[in-house]
Write a structure and sequence with these properties.
Helix content: over 70%
Strand order of the largest sheet: 1-2
Number of domains: 1
Number of helices: 15
Length: 374
């Protein structure tokens, strides 16, 4: 009798919690997590060094999302101290990476024991919150150029450090978040044209003086991978083979020869999308992209019905964070963008990115619980 009463109480608590959060968003998050686990199982099996860690990482990310959803986002909206503290802690962690050992030509991780942390993933979230706070407080005056410059400083500090690692992929995500939130806040068209012109000039200078040789090789491989099929073009060629060989329904779980036999590099991370396509075909790709679209639409639905601009901009920033990762990674796997090293959100292996996703989803659910008129 007592067990039945306790079970009933737990059911009421869970039902009450779900009623105050967005159930379709939770559903999409969990479904994507399951697909990610299945995909990586197909790449290396249960004995893979990555599989066990990946399962634990996803469980932790889900628990983090639930925990963060109880946090009242208005503390971030109303008080500057926690926002600036998160931002500057992120900057300090980024600086520490420059002292860390290089991994695949990049100093993007802090290594401790058997674990690693990629601070740029958390800095992306910190920038979203800083931009949401800054733009929401100056919404009616955002057309003034000085506010664009000031917000650009918040962007520029982590951007310079991440470029020094160097990590072009994360740099592009930061710029996309800043520019997208700036457009939503209301930027003057003349100022937008000026920014785009400056961006073109900076890109040209970076090509001449800023890019490392291997980064130029990646871009050249994107233009013509078959010029060096066993060298700089190898990754893109193998990714295209894996995706093309999947056909409509794929080769089946664990039957992807490119991924499981090691021909497809980084099949658990950078090219997890290609590994998915090889195993489950176009149908599998359609399923995961549909779930991503549902998830992003639920986030923007919460944004549209939120009661203040800070909440709206936070949701928009998280949408940009997820959407940019998905778009860039899928484009790289298809060979229509140069290799960047960005993970595919909710699919690729990577503890820091999954942690950031968990925090981001938790913030959105917190906005739903504490400040949305949904």
């Amino acid at each position: 009798m007592e067990l039945k009463k306790n079970s009933s109480s737990i059911t009421r608590v869970v039902s009450s919690y779900l009623a105050n959060t967005d159930a379709p968003l939770w559903g999409a998050f969990l479904a994507l997590s399951v697909i990610s686990i299945i995909t990586l199982f197909g790449v290396g099996g249960i004995s893979s060094a990555f599989f066990g860690r990946h399962v634990v990482t996803i469980v932790v990310a889900i628990l983090v999302a639930v925990g963060v959803s109880f946090f009242n986002y208005r503390y971030l909206k109303n008080y500057s101290a926690p926002v600036l503290a998160a931002y500057f802690v992120g900057i300090i962690l980024l600086l520490v990476t420059l002292l860390s050992p290089s991994i695949r030509g990049t100093r993007a991780w802090i290594l401790f024991g058997g674990f690693s942390l990629e601070p740029s993933e958390l800095v992306k979230l910190a920038l979203i919150i800083v931009m949401a706070k800054y733009f929401s407080q100056r919404h009616t005056h955002i057309s003034l150029f000085r506010h664009i410059v000031a917000s650009g400083v918040y962007l520029g500090i982590p951007l310079v450090i991440i470029l020094a690692q160097p990590d072009l992929g994360s740099s592009a995500v930061l710029v996309a978040i800043w520019l997208g939130m700036l457009l939503a806040a209301g930027i003057n068209k003349r100022h937008l044209a000026l920014l785009l012109g400056a961006g073109i000039v900076v890109a040209a200078l970076a090509w001449q003086f800023g890019l490392a040789p291997y980064q130029r090789d990646r871009i050249l491989a994107f233009v013509d991978p078959y010029k060096d099929p066993t060298g700089i073009g190898y990754n893109i060629i193998q990714s295209k083979i894996a995706i093309g060989s999947g056909g409509w329904f794929g080769k089946g779980l664990g039957q992807g020869t490119q991924a499981s036999l090691g021909f497809l590099p980084e099949a658990y991370n950078d090219f997890a999308f290609a590994a998915l396509a090889e195993q489950f075909g176009l149908v599998g790709v359609a399923v995961i992209l549909t779930l991503i679209i549902i998830l992003l639409m639920r986030i923007m639905s919460i944004a549209q019905r939120s009661e203040n601009n800070f909440a709206k901009l936070c949701c928009l920033g998280i949408t940009l964070f997820i959407g940019t990762h998905v778009f860039v990674n899928a484009s790289v796997n298809l060979g229509i963008l140069p290799i960047t090293g960005l993970p595919f959100s909710f699919l690729s292996y990577g503890g820091s990115h999954w942690l950031a996703l968990g925090i981001g989803i938790g913030i959105v659910q917190g906005i739903k619980r504490h400040g949305s008129s949904l």
